[in-house]
Every structure is written in structure tokens, then in C-alpha cells.
Amino acid sequence: METFGQRLRQLRMKKGLNQMQLAKGIITPSMVSQIESDKAKPSYHVLGKIAEKLEIPLDELIGNLEMNLVIISEYRLAKGMLSAGEFSGALPFLKKVIQTNNGKLDPFEIRYDYAFCLLQLNQLREAEETFQQLLEHAQSKSGSLILVVRVYHQLGQVELKRRCFQIAEHYLKKAITQLQSSNLKDVHLQCSLLLAMAEIQQKSGQLKQAVVTLQLALPIFEEREDIQGLGNLYMKLAQSFHVADQYEQATDYAQRAQWCFEALNNKSEKLTLEVRLAVLQGEMGNRDKAISALESIVEDYRRLRRDEEAGITVTELAKLYLAGGKLDQAEEACQTARKLLPTVHSNQAWVARIQAGISQARNQQTVAVKYMKQAADCFKLTECHTEYEETMQELSRLYESHNDCQSALRVMHEMWSFNRQAREQRGIVL
């Protein structure tokens, strides 16, 4: 059976109103969104005002809400945990609701939440099985087209976690095609699909296509007047152009994103963009200005007690110090970053790469090799395949420069072997 939030959404869309129009003079648009996603319960007074705006009797709006309060309470509790990212806590509640639901709650919606929870807990086989069962129902005569799209989306996420990029892209294409061919208007889902597709394309090396996909999402976010989402999208575009070495466009989109986050006064996101801009400045030759900006950002992160972000920023500082020949400052920054970052983190690998560079500049061959090996191992552990390959090539060149050709060849063989295994796992090798 449909929830109140689903009922309200259907009645609003039938009336031809958006959330802002329905909310005007009653509550905030964000509260309408919360109610429609069943995360908030309106008062009786608010229900009356909403019924007036929709020009329907209050009884028609409320519908049959005489459900089992225990089941509803447990399901709402599970939904709240899902929203808070507490997936381990939500899973037993969802299992219980599935077992005890007497048909008053939509069983397929509950199973969707259950499968989503499994996915977030990396229980991929169980998640895939549940999503496939949901897909069979959704594609039946009694099924729902919107559920088909949502399930394809999540099956794509399952394969993305498995790093099976070709299969993930296949599911996302199906989801996008289904949504486009229908008369359904769900801009939130449309944006989620495009962002997921861009992530898959970026991780599989299709950088130009990822940029095109992200740009398709731009007008949708602008139409929604979603400043937070637009800022996040601009940031993704900036990162994609940066990876493609198109620094001017990367800077432009990073600046646009900063304007969005300034409007929202979102300090954390703003700092992330300021780091990106500072890095771009450094790579375009304004090294002193970039160092000054990054040093200030580190202090801001420290005040916010955001150690991981501070560690990432200090790593970027260390790169600039090394590039400028400031070896002592670079070494000190590396030590600071190591303390701030989690033990297993891709930036720990970058710190080791920088320390190898410092050692090379000091003609400490043995130490440089040690740190380069550490960097390669950490990149492998954190599944940064491109960085792993670059580091192994650098290590091989390091051996070769000191006439240790046997070690240089051994390193390259190890890299080729690992890359072949990785490609086979992702379905690239036929």
C-alpha cells in the first residue's frame, strides 16, 4: 500500500503543482520534500491547508492511514537510519519489517530499501539478488516503470563497486533510456543517473564522455534551482577538466562552484573548492600564491577539526614545496600529512611519492626506492590503478638511472601482471 508521502506527491503532480507552489503560505518547500519522502509527519492543521491548496477533501488526502503503528514505527526508524548512513543499524529493522508487514506497507519499497542497505554494507551478492527479484516484479504487468529505472540504477551501483565498469554502464544506460522514453518527470532521479554515469565513465577512463554527461545535467540542476547540487556538479566538471589538463575550463567551473557554495555559506564545501583553485594556480605557475592560499586553508580545516581534509591539503602543499625546491618544508609537510590522514588512504601514497622525490633531490637512492615502493603498495591497496602504474614506471626509471636494469625490468613485469589481472576483473580483456 502507498505511503502518505507517495499519495501527497501523486496528488500534487496531478494538480500540476511543484513543491514550491504547494508549500507557499503553508510550510517551506524543503518540508514538503521531507513529507513526500516520508521523513516528516505534518500536523492536522497543515494537512487541512494542503487539502485546500489541492482542492480536495481532507479524507481523500489522508486516505487509509490506519496501519499497524509498530510496523510503521520500525520502518520509519530504519528509514531514518538509512538517511543518517547507519546501515548496520537499519538492516535488522528492515528484515523484521519484511517478515511482519501485513500488506499495509508497500512490500517492494521495503525490499528496495533492504537491498540498498545491503549494497551500502558491501554485501553485493545479496544486494544483487534482491534487486534482480525487484526487477522481475517491476517489469511485470503489475509493476512500476519508475521502480524499473531505480533498480537499474542500483544494479549499476553494484557493478561499480565491483569495478565492472562495462556492466555498470550497461545498467545505467538502460535506466536513462527507460526514463527518457517514459512520460515520467523525476529530475532528482534523472540527475542521480547522469552523475552515476559520469562517475563510471571517469573511472573507466572515458574522460571526454564523462564531461559531456556532466554537462547534460547542468540545465536540469539550473531548472531545479538546486544551488547545492549545482555547486557539486560544477565541482565534478572542474575535476574532470583538470584531469584532462584543460586548466582554463577547470578554473572556470571551480570558480562557478565557489560562487554556489558561497551563496549557501557552506564552509566545508567552499574550502574544498578553494583547495582545487589553489592547486590549479600552482600548476599554472602561481606557486607562491597557491602556497599562501593552501596554508590558510589548512588552518581553517584545523579550526573545523577536519583532519582528513587538512591532511589532503597539506599533501598538496608538500607537492608545491618540493616543486619549488623547498625540501625541508616539504619533508615537514609530509610528516604532518601522515599524522592527519587515515592509515589507509590514497593520499598516504602521495606522501610517500613526495618523500621519494625529496630523497632523490638529496641523492639518497636507497631511501627514494623505499618510499617509491611504499607509494606503489599504497596505491594498489587503495585501488588507484593509474597512480599505481605511474609510480611503478617511476620506480623502474629510478632503478635504471643507477644501472640496475634487472630490478627495473622486474618492476615493469610486476606492473604488467597486476594491470592484466585488474583488467580481467573489470571485463576489459576478452
UniProtKB/TrEMBL annotation:
Residue ranges of every copy of the HTH cro/C1-type domain listed in the record: 8-61
Keywords (A to Z) from UniProt: Cytoplasm, Repeat, TPR repeat
SMART domains referenced in this protein's UniProt entry, alphabetically: HTH_XRE (SM00530), TPR (SM00028)
GO molecular function: DNA binding
Location of this chain's protein in the cell: Cytoplasm
Keyword Repeat part of the UniProt annotation: yes
Domain of life: Bacteria
GO cellular component terms, A-Z: cytoplasm
Pfam family name, one: HTH_3
Similarity comment: Belongs to the Rap family.
Protein name: Soluble NSF attachment protein (SNAP)-like
Organism (species): Tumebacillus permanentifrigoris
